[in-house]
Amino acid sequence: MLRRYAVALAALLAIAPSLQSQAQTADHLVDYAGSDDAPDYTPGIDAANIYSGDHGDYTYTPSGPGSPDTGFGGRVLVGHGRLTTNDLFGDRRDRWQTGSVSASRVVARGGWTGMLPDHPFDVLEYRLGVQVVSPEYIRVPAPDDRPFAGVVSLGLHTHFMRGPVEFSLGADLSATGSQTGIGSFQTAMHDLMGVVAASPSVLSNQIPNAVHPTAVVEVANTIPLGRGVLRPFAEARVGLETMVRAGVDLTFGPVGQGEFLVRDGISGQRYRVVTDAMPGFSYVLGGDFAYVDSSKLMPASRGYDVTNRSRARAGLHWQGDNKALFYGVTWLSKEFEAQPEGQFVGSMRIDLSF
């Protein structure tokens, strides 16, 4: 029963930011645009000019005396998204990659046209990430298990295209240690729900206070396949964790076509940020492999031997008239030599507009 309460709380994290009225959303858009009038949505994007799909889309065109020359350097807010990932949605074992939240706000110069611009910095993504990793047993862990770590990241990323190739370039500042308050917060929540919390010795041995600058680059190519999309990608990270990764995502269905999605760093699931209310379902499959050089979350100075990593994922997008849902599950291979096995985590997002 207590585990069910924990699942309900994690689900609340997935849904709470989206419980807003359409009028409130419009007010936010006006605030960022610096306009006295709500932005207009006008149809007219040729389906051949968006990422893929056979349906129409919209052009987000800000209007009013203050747009688009005010706000974010002439940019306007075009969308926001988030994804909650937790092993409670997966194998329910509360270990290793135990939970994370990713949130993005995207602004664009001239609004969103259904495809990425040719120039960097015309589209900017402000990214917030919270991550909790822990040993398998948080009261008395095995001596060679990974240490507890809480991570809070703030980042700025730009997205653009050159020909058919999509680029994402950015940097994050990732804070670790007790300064983040994540260990104390998790303990309080576990105590509230009657769930076993991390012992004082586990928290005292957590990854120490530090701020880790991290650079992230992703290159991808979206290839239409009938009613589906194949998207191979390559990624490099240097900082909190240093690795190179290559993989592919496959999407079938109308939801997400012509939209803007960004990748969650833990699960690899892509979540919707600039959305089109095209009703229906989309099914996603994906996987990737990473060569890992080092990790500040498992420092070699403590004797940890990091391993290369694989991820395999599947998910479902559903879009209704005023509601949307995403659920995905990801298998994560082991991340260090002493880790006995991989794990399953689930990712969830719920949107309600009324």
From TrEMBL:
One Pfam family here: LpxR
Keywords assigned: Signal
Superkingdom of source: Bacteria
Signal peptide boundaries: 1-23
UniProt keyword annotation of Metal-binding present: no
Record bears the keyword Signal: yes
InterPro entries named among the record's database cross-references: LpxR (IPR018707), Put_OMP_sf (IPR037107)
Classification via Gene3D superfamilies: Outer membrane protein
Protein name, UniProt field: DUF2219 family protein
